[in-house]
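Re: the pair you flagged

First of the two:
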Amino acid sequence: MKDGEIHVDVLVVGGGNAALCAAIAAKRLGADVLIVEKAPMFYRGGNTRHTRNMRCAHDAATETLTGPYSEEEFWDDLLRVTEGNTDEKLAKHMIAKSKDMLTWIAEQGVRFQPSLGGTLSLGRTNSFFLGGGRAMLNALYKTAEELGIKVMYETPVTDLDIVDGHFKSALARHEGKPLRIHAKSLVAAAGGFEANIEWLKEGWGDVAENFLIRGTPYNRGDVLRLLLDKGVEPIGDPTQCHAVAIDARAPKFDGGIITRLDCVVFGIVVNKLAERFYDEGEDFWPKRYAIWGRLVAAQPDQISYIIFDAKSLKSFMPSLFAPIEANSIAELAQKLELPVEQLEATVGGFNEAVQPGTFDHTVFDDCHTKGLAIEKTHWARKLEDPPYYAYPVRPGITFTYLGTRVDEDARMLLQGGGKADNMYAAGEIMAGNVLGKGYAAGIGMTIGSVFGKLAGEGAATHV
């Protein structure tokens, strides 16, 4: 290393799950690997810090999974949530590769635990990290350090030297000084641009000012912008993203998983006009929870309210914030500053429309409404047991889908045709290849792990 310069085999930009999987895979093939992470050490790992599980195909039950989850079922779930907006060949390739990931991840020190209960319904399909995403990250960092992978924190990449699809070097800042990093291969795993409100506004308009960002404030899309400006082919719609309804009282950035609300299926959701606007019982929560951010974003002032009664209070994982409580619907409306008569009419009309049935949130039950403009097709129960509760919610953006197009080896593709010579991408920065729209719980970690390992192996093999 010369003053202001570093030479390595593989440069990995980013510090989350995808970056760690790439770095470890490359190192295990003999490459000299450097990770540069924009965030300080405490905030390392991007959105991985806030995750809980990953979705992988598997042939049989395990100590932590209750049954098999075939490649065909995984594909069917992905096809349903994306409504066909996915690269079928690449997605099926990822699903096939996911079968080996649980073993490989465990070999890197990550441990799993049985699924949580409640509305998650993921005990068969998703593997939960023991201790959550931060523990998973710590295990991967420990393995990386033991392998001799160097990590530089607070080192943002400011420019990339790319000529005709060939990466030569990156310019970064470290300890306040410019640093030129020469590498034989590049793995970009630096996340999306969800923390860049101005970029979000390019697609969404001014409504993006009311969005809350669930994860790290460091994911501003700087590396993504550099890559697209220097000839990498883009993929995805800038307005498509993983967007869920989160507690409106959450901080602007980094509220994480504890601000997410899983209680939609137990009640009704109204906008600031006290009107329902979507079927709260359309499908099981893990397959539909990620539509609610976009739904709320389309409502006046990007605000809505989940309303339920006493019988549902302990049926789901609570938010970090306590629900707003009242002894009557009128009192609840006043506390929420909603039109009282309209909310009473909405709740009253809903209650009258509820049909007799046997409530069971673990199956598609027969509890539904009849006669409403917007029916609730499952899990419909009258709101009649005081006290009544409400959570205010806003769109919570997890990560964006506009990214870099890649092939089955995670190699970046170029504008105008052709493949990059020595540039790979993994994780949120290329998630739009698989996720054109929609989301199902745990797929983000699958994308990061599978394509991270592929990118690392490809980068090391190129070296």
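Second of the two:
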Amino acid sequence: MSDARNGSLDGRTDADPLPTISVVDPRDGTPVGTLPCAAPAQVRAAITAALSSARTWSRTEPERRGALLHEAADAVEQHAEELAELTTRETGKLADDALGGVRAGVGTLRQYAELGPVHRGHSLRGGVLAADWTVPEPRGLVVALTPWNDPIAVAAGLLGAALVTGNTVIHKPSERCPHVGRRLGEVLAGVLPEGVLTTLVGGPDVGRALSSSPDVDVIAHVGSSATGHAIARAAAETGAHVVRENGGNDPLVIDDDVDPTWAAAQAALGAFANAGQICTSVERIYVHQAIAAPFLTALTEEAARRDRDGALAPLVDRRLRRAVHEQVTQALEAGAVALTGAVVPEGPGAAYPATVLRDCTAEMTVMREETFGPVAPVQIVESFAEGLRRAGEGRYGLAATVLTGRLAHTQQALADLSVGTLKVNNVFGGAPGGSAQPRGDSGDGFGYGPELLDEMTRVKVVHVEMPAG
């Protein structure tokens, strides 16, 4: 691990030339731009600024912090079109989806602006002449490491919850979308007091330097499981509190009593939305043999329609496309059958077709690991119980979906599946203000929702009683 105190980023010092990050548009391969990575001195300066601002910011009235967060939301809203365009250019996200992500981020900032000032402790019952209560306090310095697949919405949640509870923040956006991350930081910092929020552009070395700093109190990470494990190991040395939402291999179990065409539409939405580049995308499908044939026909038609209508975003870059196609190729070599897709298109960019694979088995990588692409691998099962058993296999525990009209099967899924979120009859269903705790290699802690305010604070217990005499 690197150490921000001595100026080292994996052996790099202030005297070394700065590495850069270059991004190309995944739609057509045209350049978006090049940015320099943060130098060791910039990492040190960001930590110093955050620490020097911490006391004043933590003692700012909660109502004032909430008001500033509302102003920050206003500023993001004013720059929504610009941020959405940058998101599309760097990640390939469809224009409407990119703008929707920015608007979701605005809504999240406003939500925390309202929730923060009313975040409170609890009274405790003690002696008649005594008083006991708990007081939530900011943890201190929060490092937020955010992903590229929904860069504004995810960052707004982590940054909003950390700031409104009185923490200072250093944000490192993904190196796959440094321009949109930097611009978001500029918009937010323009409203906040100096030193309260700093954005650093960089690759894994900058993230490691921040995660291993003993001055950091919280590390909030959304990204791969491998990176999440590395962060947890670093935090074990420094004592930082870790909140992480990491990879998933979310299953979809389809019962024999549902309409196969409707089930196919649900599966297509879960597997192909944002080209499968969503943390809770449907990654593996178990369909009852009684409806498998019409289901596969309808799912294949859904996939072809998305390709034909231009409703499928490209993958973020060719590196991810190679990884996705490698999983598909391995599955085909092991006996899976491609009903559509599975071919890398010619031409520039990082497009990949909506792909449906049948006859998949548990041994295939596409069924065991996160694919993060527009791939719907299907295994036909003899019963709902078999589908549920197979859905519970593996090292991930982010989310799962079941499609069934039977209450008993819903209850069995609730009892059997060790996941943070169980969705019944809607692959992306959920009420506003919801939250979840991922399991296994999918992470730990509440990464969003009102409970994220608890993650960003620690509790002090107060006891007061009358003096003697």
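The mean pLDDT is 95.

-B.
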